[in-house]
Structure to design on (148 residues):
């Protein structure tokens, strides 16, 4: 008779342990999900900075005329003093001819001087779906005029 009235403490202990492990597992899962999100954003920012710096270096080496010819798939708007270049990239950071996952936007101001031309360039890389700025930088390049 005394066995029937005694509470089963072992079952209560097991339930408490399961509850504790369930809470611990949910906290650990949130850490892993947050780490994956941060890793994805970090990869996108690194890739955006590499692409923007690569395009800026191409401009510094080639100049305006060769630069706009060399960028296949770029949308170029040139109205004299201001040049806008837009490059679209897919998920794997390959240049695309249609709006895709990422956009590299170059705004160039052209300032003609007696001794040459100064270009001031603002480069920005955006994620297309929510227009988050992944990378942004300013650059300038002076092309002197060499007289023969």
């Amino acid at each position: 008779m005394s066995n029937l009235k005694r509470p089963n403490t072992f079952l209560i202990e097991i339930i408490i342990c399961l509850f504790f492990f369930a809470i611990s597992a949910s906290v650990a899962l949130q850490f892993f999900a947050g780490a994956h999100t941060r890793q994805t954003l970090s990869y996108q920012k690194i890739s955006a900075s590499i692409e923007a710096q690569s395009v800026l270096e191409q401009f510094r080496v080639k100049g305006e005329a060769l630069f706009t010819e060399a960028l296949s798939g770029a949308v170029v708007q040139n109205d004299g003093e201001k040049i806008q270049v837009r490059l679209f990239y897919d998920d794997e950071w390959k240049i695309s001819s249609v709006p895709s996952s990422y956009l590299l936007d170059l705004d160039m101001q052209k300032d003609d001087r007696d001794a040459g031309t100064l270009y001031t360039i603002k480069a920005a890389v955006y994620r297309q779906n929510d227009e988050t700025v992944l990378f942004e930088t300013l650059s300038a390049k002076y092309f002197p005029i060499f007289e023969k």
